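Sharing in case it's useful to others searching the archive later.

Someone asked me privately for the predicted structure of MYT1L protein, so I'm posting the question and my answer publicly. Question first, with the sequence:
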Amino acid sequence: TVYSLSGCPRATSAMKKAKLSGEQMLTIKQRASNGIENDEEIKQLDEEIKELNESNSQMEADMIKLRTQITTMESNLKTIEEENKVIEQQNESLLHELANLSQSLIHSLANIQLPHMEPINEQNFDAYVTTLTDMYTNQDRYQSPENKALLENIKQAVRGIQV
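And my answer, the predicted structure tokens:
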């Protein structure tokens, strides 16, 4: 039995092998310190990756909201366009009906001469209708027998017009 390492034949050969040069010790120290620095860099990179992932998640959520809003807006726009088409068709129909009514009124009142006016035609149609409207709303100003007969003739002429 050997009581010390120096007396042990196996220990001496192991110690000779285990002895490191100064250069080898410096390399080991550098590797150890680099490992510590790398650990901090890795922690910092992990933190940055975590922040980027959170930021990406928030951006993806915002993009989903934007896509939903855009889809809703597009749907609303399509609905409005369809409603506008219906309104345009109704307007066209009303304009056509108005043109037919105007022609019917012109035809029915062609033989009736209003005071101080030419016979009704397409060119003076608006003025003729304005004069008629004035005559009916202000009948107290048109009390003469001639005007009463004229208003009665107009009533008879327009009775046949279908509205």
